[in-house]
Amino acid sequence: MSYDILFPMKLALKIRPQRSTQYAHMTSALASPELQASPAGRLISDITSLTLAGQGYLLVTADASLLTSRPMRDLLARLGASSEAYEYFEQIGDITGPLLRPIEPHFVPFLPLEMAEARRYKGKTNEIFTRVLLNVAIFAGEYSTHYNERLRILDPLAGGGTTLFTALAAGYDAFGVELERQDVETTAQFVKQYLTGEHIPFKETNERSRKAGRRYHFEIGRKGETRWLVLAQGNTTDASMHMREVAGGPHMHAIVGDLPYGIQHFGEIASLLSKALPVWESMLLPGGTLALSWNATRIERAALSELLERHTHLHIRNDPPYTLFAHAVDRVIKKRDIIVGVKS
Predict the structure, then answer these.
(1) Which InterPro entries match (predicted)?
(2) Where are any strands of DSSP class E within the chain?
(3) Terminus of the chain with fewer CB atoms < 10 Å: N or C?
(4) Can you say whether residue 198 is alpha, beta or left, with left for phi > 0 and alpha for psi between -120 and 50 degrees?
(5) 46-59 average pLDDT score
């Protein structure tokens, strides 16, 4: 497909539509910093908000290579808070705009993105926010330009598996550790039912006899194009042990976790993280990243940043756009935020 590029080139990225006003505000808040954090950010000179026919967009002024490069078009389609991308024209010939021309996406999910939406459970993190969190983790470190490769992602607080399914859709190997046995078993059952229903081939190994807790291995996809999903039942402070025997061992490009929202006091977070952080850091490959989201209504960013610096040697990204992700969730969680650390 050929393009007649006009300079300066402008793109309109549609803010991903949401059914509720609550999540619409969330995606609007996350879209710009997610784009700035991405490898596309270095090609962008200006970002403003725009509303067309009641729909929100990011109006982006960028270098032409953002459009002509296939990897960049792949990247735009991987963003979580924005959806379709368009060329934007104020005028074409005698026709006054604004006018939009769709940009063909070049990203085909490994598994349907709907898998993360279909899994319903108490305490679930919104799947769009999860996509943003995963992207930010990858963009922040040395693997920022490897977003379309087979990376290894760990969720050390896996819950019902939203992060794992999101990572699989992106084409990554997904590994999870979850303390609650019922969550692990119901997630494994959902995986089997979903893959079977969608006619997606898979092989399963269920290690029932492990003293450390049950572990499920799924090899998903057609021969030669498979991805791993591994889910272990156990304590996150033992995450390295749980992943030691899996394909590739306990080595991860990114560790992505959503800290429990029910925790109201810093002491509870500190108790968990003081034990878990050294383990998680040891599992990261050089240049890999740790990205955590948390209920920032009561726990300030500075306190969490200091805790990470005390218990790890990670470089904490306290620079824009990584300080711009704070947003409201609901009436209880008035502020949620993201913090990212990079292993040297």
Answers:
(1) SAM-dependent_MTases_sf
(2) 9-15, 44-52, 55-62, 82-92, 95-102, 152-155, 173-178, 202-207, 215-220, 227-233, 252-258, 284-295, 315-316, 336-342
(3) N
(4) alpha
(5) 96
In this model, does residue 2 exceed pLDDT 50? no
Write down the mean pLDDT value for the chain.
Answer: 93
Exposure class string for 294-333: b at 16+ Cβ within 10 A, else e: bbbbebebeebbebbeebbebbbbeeebbbbbebebeeee
CA atoms within 13 A on the CB side of 84: 11
Residues of the chain with pLDDT > 90, as a percent, come to 83
250-290: per-residue pLDDT in tens?
999 999 999 988 776 788 899 999 999 999 999 999 999 99
Burial 111-120 (b: 16+ CB within 10 A, else e): bebebbeebe
- Strand pairing report for 215-220 and 336-342: unpaired
Average pLDDT over residues 212-239: 94
Q: CA torsion, points 21, 27, 29, 34, in degrees to nearest 10?
A: 180
Q: Which pair of structure tokens corresponds to residue 310?
A: 């005390």
Domains defined for the chain, CATH in brackets = 9-102 (3.30.70), 114-342 (3.40.50.150)
Longest dimension (CA), the chain: 74
**Token pair of 172 as six digits:** 């990554």
The rounded Cα 110 to chain-centroid distance in angstroms is 15
User: For residues 297, 301, 306 and 312, what is the CA-based torsion angle, rounded to 10 degrees?
Assistant: 100
